[in-house]
Amino acid sequence: MADRPNHLELLRRFAPGTALRDAVDLILAQGTGALIVIGGGSAIEAVSSGGFRLVDTAFTAQRIAELAKMDGGLVIDRVAERILAANIHFVPDSTIPTEETGTRHRTAQRLAVQTNRPVLAVSDTRATAIVYVGTDKHEVQSPEALTARANDVLTSMERLRRRVDDAALRLTRFEVDDVVVNRDVVLLLQRAGLVRRLNAQLAGLIAQLGGEAQLIELQARDLVEGVDDLVKTVYSDYAKRRPRNPAKILTRLDNLNLTELYDPPVVASEVELTPLDGTVRPRGFRALERVPRLPDTVRDALLSHFSDFHQMLRAPQPELAQVEGVGRHRARQLRSYFDRLLESTDLWEVEEG
């Protein structure tokens, strides 16, 4: 299952200690298997046959485990508080494609696609539990396995975050030297997009771990801090037209699949930064973001006054002071900041490529 935001709440219901997770563990322990639809309604009625309906029957792990001993499947409400039906024979559309092999799992996947309801399939032969949501699926794993996976993702995120920071420093250096090409910008966007992708995977694992993932969640939060703002300011600097809503770049990167995200020409085409080896100059958004206590109105005035960051970086202090809202004191502050950038460029050691 892709750990999409609308799936996270469902995954949290299978965290250790929840009623649904306890039910899964009991069914696996007794070796009976189960097919459970999460959410009733007319769509489920249309593919149900036989069995019996239950009235005001509270959901408990023990009841679910006992009812799972019957041949048919179960229907529970969306929030896992009531058991709605038991011993149901489900008959989904057999023409719906499925890659599953076992009867129970084939039925579960087709039900999920046809009814748009999450479906849990617990296999007595495989000793596995899988939740199907539309065409996606997710295996309910042990806390130990989830923690191991989460730590692996964290390690990858740490490595990629360092590469994002390297790419940002490299881009700053090239901006000061006025040698930026689109490829340099795309490289940063790619790496930032991969950090976001890993963070989305980790969010799913954290949801499944529940209260056992507090430390992992804190580490993940630290690793992604500032990444979104970096992407938005970089895109504001280099988009062919100044974007009205820079946050849209995040959605565009998220919509790329993993293979596309690793492909510079594909990313460049998606964000309209072509040709890859074409020279470009930033507007100066990112550079001005690093100036402390700079009002947005003054930032916008500077961006309007200078055609690009190259001109702004080399503007004399009197010209800076003439920009609306800048004044002599802030002009001196800006000139000092720009001078430090110009003086330090030769000292930076940045990972290439």
Residue share in helix = 40-55%
**Structural class based on helices, strands and sheet pairing:** alpha+beta
What general form does the structure show?
Answer: elongated
Instruction: Count the DSSP helices.
Output: 17
CATH superfamily of the largest domain: DNA integrity scanning protein, DisA, N-terminal domain
| SSE order, one letter for each helix or strand | HHEHEEHEEHEEEHHHHHHHHHHHH
**CATH class (first level) name of the largest domain:** Alpha Beta
Q: What is the CATH architecture assignment of the largest domain?
A: 3-Layer(aba) Sandwich
Instruction: Report the span from N to C terminus.
Output: 32 Å
> How many discrete domains?
3
The major pleated sheet works out as: 8 strands, mixed
The radius of gyration is 27 Å
DSSP strand content? 5-15%
Here the CATH topology of the largest domain equals YojJ-like (1
Mean model confidence by pLDDT: 93
Could you characterize what this model shows?
The protein is α+β, with helices and mostly antiparallel strands. It folds into three domains: 11-140, 3-Layer(aba) Sandwich (YojJ-like (1), CATH 3.40.1700.10; 144-270, DNA integrity scanning linker region (Ferritin); 285-347, Orthogonal Bundle (DNA polymerase, domain 1), CATH 1.10.150. The protein contains 17 helices and eight strands. It has helices spanning 5-12, 19-30, 42-45, 61-67, 103-115, 143-177, 182-209, 214-224, 227-238, 248-254, 258-261, 264-270, 285-289, 296-305, 309-313, 317-322, 327-344, and strands spanning 34-38, 48-49, 52-58, 73-76, 82-90, 119-123, 128-133, 136-139. Strands 1, 2, 3, 4, 5, 6, 7 and 8 form an eight-stranded mixed sheet that branches. A hairpin with a 5-residue loop joins β4 and β5. α1 runs parallel beside α7 (182-209). The longest helix has 35 residues, at 143-177.
